[in-house]
Amino acid sequence: MSDESRSTPAQTSVAAVIPAAGRGVRLGPGAPKALRALSGTPMLIHAVRALAASRHVALVVVVAPPDGAAEVKSLLDAHALPDRTDFLVVPGGESRQESVRLGLEALPPQYGIVLVHDAARPLVPVDTVDAVVEAVRDGAPAVVPALPLADTVKEVAPAAEAGEPEPVVATPERSRLRAVQTPQGFDRATLVRAHESVTENVTDDASMVEQLGLPVVAVPGHEEAFKVTRPLDLVLAEAVLARRRLNDGF
Ligand SMILES: Nc1ccn([C@@H]2O[C@H](COP(=O)(O)OP(=O)(O)OP(=O)(O)O)[C@@H](O)[C@H]2O)c(=O)n1
Ligand SMILES: C[C@](O)(CO)[C@H](O)COP(=O)(O)O
């Protein structure tokens, strides 16, 4: 590639990988979490629309439950989505990390910036997505949206016996702690290297980049980007959607 044809960060195309292959055990029995309805629409469709709402995002790769790729393709076909965005569906894996890796492997070469976004965070506002992309375009290899904590956090040691109280061993300084959300944004080469190098299971992609010794920066997250994990989160999600409908005058 000549120097003239090499993309600058500002021109680099952006793809989003949406891991949606989880079962949703903490949500309780039912369909895979991403396929459960919020206000009559599958959670996954809300998440896809939230990412495709960003003018930066040109491709969305949905990582479907391992035996659910055909169902997810039909869902994408059945719901209105922006014309300017391309969509791909690939089957996922046993862990979130494996599902993200499978999504990354499906990315065509022209995408230099990758967002990884949980299907379980269906209501992330577009301004949060854009802020993450802009921070990567400004040169950060890895960016996380993050919020200060409302609760004090304690570190505990294992209880002496199951069911016994856990001894508290430390209280980390709260002002320096953040609750991390998605989409997390990456320079693609950095994220690919992280997934190739880190073999132990981690709960987010940015921590793999930290393990490479590369900088990760935090931008402001949003309270509506919360993760639907337990049954009460569904109640909150429905309330947020009802508030949006009211604000939009529906
Ligand atoms: N094998 C997996 C496990 C999780 N995920 C995705 O990773 C995101 C965050 O995971 P989480 O909220 O933990 O979802 P689940 O694994 O479905 O939840 P649980 O742990 O309660 O089963 C979700 O969008 C989920 O679909 C995935 O793509 N592949
Ligand atoms: C990636 C993540 O959403 C950042 O908070 C989170 O780590 C996912 O965790 P989960 O246990 O897979 O829900």
CATH class: Alpha Beta
Which molecules other than protein and nucleic acid are bound? cytidine-5'-triphosphate, the ligand C[C@](O)(CO)[C@H](O)COP(=O)(O)O
Low-confidence stretches: 1-7
Largest beta-sheet characterization? 8 strands, mixed
Could you tell me the CATH topology label: Spore Coat Polysaccharide Biosynthesis Protein SpsA, Chain A
Number of strands: 12
Secondary structure class reads alpha/beta
Give the second-level CATH assignment, the architecture.
Answer: Alpha-Beta Complex
Strand content: 15-25%
Q: Tell me, briefly, the overall form.
A: globular
Keywords: Isoprene biosynthesis, Nucleotidyltransferase, Transferase
Pathway: Isoprenoid biosynthesis; isopentenyl diphosphate biosynthesis via DXP pathway; isopentenyl diphosphate from 1-deoxy-D-xylulose 5-phosphate: step 2/6
Catalytic activity: 2-C-methyl-D-erythritol 4-phosphate + CTP + H(+) = 4-CDP-2-C-methyl-D-erythritol + diphosphate
Site (Transition state stabilizer): 26, 33
Give your account of this protein's structure:
The chain has 250 residues and is α/β, with parallel strands linked by helices. It has helices spanning 43-52, 69-78, 96-105, 126-137, 188-197, 206-211, 231-247, and strands spanning 13-19, 37-38, 41-42, 57-64, 86-91, 111-116, 142-148, 155-156, 168-170, 178-180, 184-187, 217-220. It starts with 12 loop residues before the first strand and ends with a helix. The protein has one domain (9-144, 180-247): Spore Coat Polysaccharide Biosynthesis Protein SpsA, Chain A (Alpha-Beta Complex). The site of ligand LQXTBERG has 9 residues, from loops.
